[in-house]
From TrEMBL, chain A:
Residues 5-324 form the FAD dependent oxidoreductase domain. Its cofactor is FAD. This is D-aspartate oxidase. The lineage of its organism: Eukaryota, Metazoa, Chordata, Craniata, Vertebrata. D-dopa binds at residues 223, 278. It comes from Tichodroma muraria.
UniProtKB/TrEMBL annotation, chain B:
Residues 2-329 form the FAD dependent oxidoreductase domain. One of its GO terms (molecular function) is D-amino-acid oxidase activity. This is D-amino-acid oxidase. The gene is Dao. Its cofactor is FAD.
Amino acid sequence: MASPKVAVVGAGVVGLSTALCITETCPSCSVTVLSDQFSPNTTSDVAAGMLIPHTYPDTPIHRQKQWFKETFTYLFAISNSAEASEAGIHLVSGWQVFKSTPKEELPFWSDIVLGFRPMSEAELQKFPQHQFGQAFTTLKCDCPPYLLWLEKKLKATGTQMYTRKVSDLWDLHSEYDIVVNCTGMGAHQLVGDKQLFPVRGQVLKAHAPWVKQFIRDGDGLTYIYPGIHSVTLGGTREKGNWSLSPDAGTTREIFDRCCSLEPSLQGAQDIEVKVGLRPSRQCVRVQREVLSQGRVKFPVVHNYGHGAGGFSVHRGTANEAAHLVGECISALHGSSSRAKL
Amino acid sequence: MRVAIIGAGVIGLSSALCIHEQFHGLVPSLELEVYADRFTPHTTSDGAAGLWQPYLSDHGNLQETLWNKETFDYLLSHLHSPAAKEMGLFLISGYNLFTEPVPDPSWKNIVLGFRNLTPKELGLFPGYSYGWFNTALMLEGRSYLPWLTNRLMQRGVKFFHKKVESFQEVSGDGVDVVLNCSGMCAGDLQPDPELQPGRGQVIKVLAPWLKHFIITHDLKSGIYNSPYVIPGSEFTVLGGIYQHGNWSEENSAKDHKSIWDSCCRLLPALQKAKIVGEWSGLRPARPSVRLERESIRLGNLQAEVIHNYGHGGFGITIHWGCAMAAARLFGSILQEKKQLATPPGPRL
């Protein structure tokens, strides 16, 4: 097979970064991205894009750590280059505060982010309701810029991108040799994965350019993440809630919670409300599968179910998915050689 | 009692506010008047980025370190107040970079979370092998000075736009105390060879992805002669010029190139930043701040002058500690005047 044709379904951060990794590891591949939505209308566009990992209960910690490390290293290099502002990648420092000291004071990622240390007494005084805290510096991927930058890099490799709703992976088997499923929440319908469930997140994006530090409550519900042009104020984690409509009461409540952590937010302007469904799963599904109908085989690589941790591990899982695509190609070569005998 | 304040930069306005807050209740006749040839946004304080950070070494000047601490603590206590945004006050973290190890600064325990940089962090800044990280405060003059002005106007303080040529000019006419907060122009009122300009130039750019201040140090060239990048609420300040004895307030093309090239080398992403302005100003530099009383005799009149000038490149950093000290000097003047008004001897 001279030029394997690979279709990547999904154009969020996972789909685009996976497509990019495939072009890097398999330059002879012809990669096409298919998605019903592109930036600024993907789930990724709602997310703040902070590199603070979410812990997946059923993925081994060493694997999650590897994914995060690869992602952090990749983005760190971009943040330090001339492309940083175009790619929307920047360093941000701040605090994660806890109302009561957590069982695990050192998360698995503490040696990957920069300058991780417990907060001092003087710093904690700013948070009278919180007993304990961690200070560190991490990276933020602002969307749309990051997704647009990925799209630009893909176009430069000759990757085509089409707006297309894929309702059945088999629909693609005549045009493509391998399909990569990066459909996020869409996998629930597309491949019938009942282990995938939405965790609804509502956020506010506000103009408050004096906010230079992030603040996150360790319970994950309240957070303030300063981006390039707006500050993301969050949020909610509503398991099983499929609604994409903003809720006014929730907006007020998020705003109040954030103002109690950072009172100057009272002066924030131009508040926009956004909703995204975190495509959640007990473990991220990065896995090969071979679909078959009769004697026709269609290799699939799944890369979905990143839930609240998409940005934190996207490049690591993209690398792994690209590697699996490589395995699919080898398998196809193997079977086509057998067919020649 | 009439008090004339000469100068409407951060020092003049904060000293005026501090004195009014402390004494207007005790001295019902207290009248404050601010005289200046320049008001916000045309003062030296308006051009400064507004980062709270003293120089690396206090040269054993413990008094100044205490005034710096007083200022930081005062500002920190206002961080959560509704006024913070209007004051232009917010937290910011960042990096101080060196090419060799240096002793910890006098302010390491004043700022929040002071620590050395890790090797990974230093990897961000090729050419620098040592450094600090800490969280400090920004107090933007463009917001703080109008805020101070509003507070003063609410209190009935009067403002006069005029260039004061001598202490006599304001002190005749029934003014009892003169506060000399004239910064770079103090030499016009009373010669002071120790006061010299420390000329600075800055380029203002739009770089909203930058969330940290970065201050590099070249121990051989001296303070502020090495690139620095300070993100504000509306734009980012690029600087790295300190020219002792240079009185020019004109922007220099040579200095522009030096700032631009060195800052872009430090942060390659700045090449994409849009330039929105440029400014030059004179830091009123002095071996130490002049904060003291002086009695000036003018014919048969005597006026008390409180000098409060010579804050170099750390005016915003030290302003409140100095304002409080000036207020204490004012208090002692009041006490002396009261004593003179009280009849001598015990009351029978």
